[in-house]
Write a structure and sequence with these properties.
single chain; 203 residues; mainly alpha; Helix Hairpins
Length: 203
């Protein structure tokens, strides 16, 4: 059986969203399901490929890992199956590399908040401007995470100023600073591992 990547197995582009992945899986699985092709080993093998491709691409973290592996393989070999079938797959790797650079710049700007407040403002502007171009990727997730961190930190900073007159403002500011630094450190570590952050919690 020819060597194809998971996107080609499902017949989708590398920037396909979850809905497209699920639809492609349903269509392909129905066609090659063993119950519809009894005694056909080729169809059974094809169905296993389809299932493996779907299980990987439908999971954001596994998909991010797979995309990274695909890019690394492309760099080593100089050619992948995606390069043989269309330029849209080869364009995906440089685009995601650019997204990664933008997100790392966001983290750097946010980290400079301890030196000057202007830097995280620049960081959140960059996050709002670029996240729309990142699709449903791990980098889009980190941009949203940093936006949430910014507004949480700003709210804590304002509250510390309001409560300064009753003597707890400095304590609150310290706690907010620790929280802010923790969020940045945790997020950056996850980014270097190509993993997403939870957007449902504040810690």
């Amino acid at each position: 059986m020819e060597n194809r990547n998971f996107y080609e197995i499902l017949g989708i582009s590398a920037d396909a969203d979850i809905a497209e992945i699920r639809k492609a899986y349903r269509d392909s699985a129905m066609k090659y399901h063993p119950d519809r092709n009894p005694g056909n080993p080729e169809a059974e093998e094809r169905f296993k490929e389809i299932r493996q491709a779907y299980d990987t691409l439908v999971d954001p973290e596994r998909r991010a890992w797979y995309d990274e592996s695909l890019r690394e393989f492309s760099g080593r070999s100089g050619q992948t199956a995606s390069q043989q079938t269309g330029s849209e797959h080869t364009a995906e790797a440089p685009r995601q590399d650019g997204d990664r650079t933008y997100v790392m710049a966001m983290y750097a700007l946010f980290a400079l908040a301890f030196a000057t407040f202007v830097m995280p403002v620049a960081g959140i502007v960059l996050a709002y401007v670029k996240r729309g171009d990142m699709g449903d990727s791990v980098y889009n997730n980190h941009a949203d995470y940093l936006i949430k961190t910014f507004w949480g930190g700003l709210a804590g900073f304002v509250l510390s100023k309001i409560t300064a007159f009753i003597g707890i403002g400095s304590v609150l500011l310290f706690l907010v600073s620790v929280w802010f630094a923790y969020r940045l450190a945790a997020g950056f570590v996850r980014l270097t591992d190509n993993k997403r952050m939870s957007l449902d919690t504040w810690f």
